[in-house]
Predict the structure.
Amino acid sequence: MQARFTVYWLLFGAVFLQACSSSKSIPTLQDTSNIQSIPGRIIVDSLKAMPIQEIVEEKKEEMPDSKSLTDELNFTYLKAKSKVVWKTDNDQENYTVDIRAKKDSIIWINISVSMVSGATGIFTKDLVQFYDKINGKYFSWSYDSLSHVMGFKVDYAIIQSLIIGNEPFKKKNSKVIRENDNFVIQQQEGLVKINNFVGPNRKLKKLLLKEDASENQMRMDFEDFSSINQFLFPFSSQITLDVVNKENQLKKTIISIKYSKVELLEEALTFPFKVPEKYLHK
């Protein structure tokens, strides 16, 4: 249990959230670099009885600005309850996770096993803290440290966006490509390539992050959107994490979360996090 809680927290904290119990159609990432033009029109001069001529106009399709493609979930405080299933090649565990958040400020989670609270965590802008009550362990990481452990870039903005289904990175130099009824917003963050797949409902339906220098990649599929306070919220999705370990083996982890309750609130929430003094100085 000790190793499981520690590893689970790293995975859950870094990628955070959501599940799918059924597979829906998700657009695949394709090479669209050679899509430069669209077919033009066929013009027929029937009055002069001239032969039909096909005139193809080469012109680039005008793409909307990436900032206008998605509808952001706006809130002051968020409170949620979820069921989490964590799968690896060799194992599967089930958890209940309660979440509280103040937008752009703090995220609190409580992880329970068989109705018993086993661990509590706090995310702030600069720090991640975790108290494993069952094994009497306290951890504190900067996001740089957590990213190093995970083999992936992690920060507060990514975690918050993944919880609520918003686009994590807002970049002026984003490239927008149309794929059928969806748009793909392509970005680069350091050595990580980012593809945001936006559906017809103007919500993020898939997020794919892949490192240039390794096989490490992270994919989030968001589903089951329902309205809360006039905003669409993804009540289920799936996170797939592929990371090369120290033995140079590619390991796959799937984190599934399904929300049973989500509230967007204006009144302040508390974020109880207390660690016994004896663990703070270890």
Observations:
- The chain has four helices and 15 strands.
- The chain has one domain: 2-20+69-280.
- The domain at 2-20+69-280 is CATH 2.50.20.10 (outer membrane lipoprotein receptor (LolB), chain A).
